[in-house]
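It is worth pausing here to work through a concrete case rather than discussing structure prediction in the abstract. The textbook approach is simple: state the sequence, then state the predicted structure, then interpret. We follow exactly that order.
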Amino acid sequence: MAPSPPPPEELPEVCRDIQIEYSNQVMKLGLVLFQLLSEALKLDPNHLADMDLDKGLAFFGHYYPACPQPDLTMGGAKHSDYGFLTVLLQDEIGGLQILHDQQWVDVPPTPGALVINIGDLLQMISNDKLKSVEHRVLANKKGPRVSVACFFSTSIAPLTKKYGPIKELVSDDNPPRYRETTVHDYIQYSFYKEVDGVSGLVHFKL
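Step two, the predicted structure:
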């Protein structure tokens, strides 16, 4: 949906107007979130936005049918998000879990609330000050489960700009932990490597 949105007529008519409006609102929210995260990292409020982290947005609609035998079915396998930041809108069905201290923890739906995930690339450029969360989605007898995930990333456009640990966040005592890469190359590697539950960040560690 950004920076080069598709022509409106390419979007399904049933959700076209709301998808465009929702994406515009998520872009505004993203700018605020990146400002808050910049301040949390003790950087200028516009630092992350000035790095163009808020410029790309991919919109994914997810549909999980009701499953008669959820204990025999994999929903969404364990993974972390590849981009900078994810804004997730989930319905009342639930099923989302995050991995915390080697334990799976439910993320119960809260009416009117959004779930915000740190992505791998934000962990990389923060030099591990911010952590990408591993998560999964369980199959459920209830359903269908519907969710919308908006990923802040420029992976759709294979730009040559490289990202690595922000220089203001590294020092002799805290050297860079990752090598630089483009968003496109990082996501291509992470997306097409074997799905083994291991973050693509491991491949880019110094």
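Step three, interpretation. The mean pLDDT is 91. The first helix runs from residue 16 to 40.
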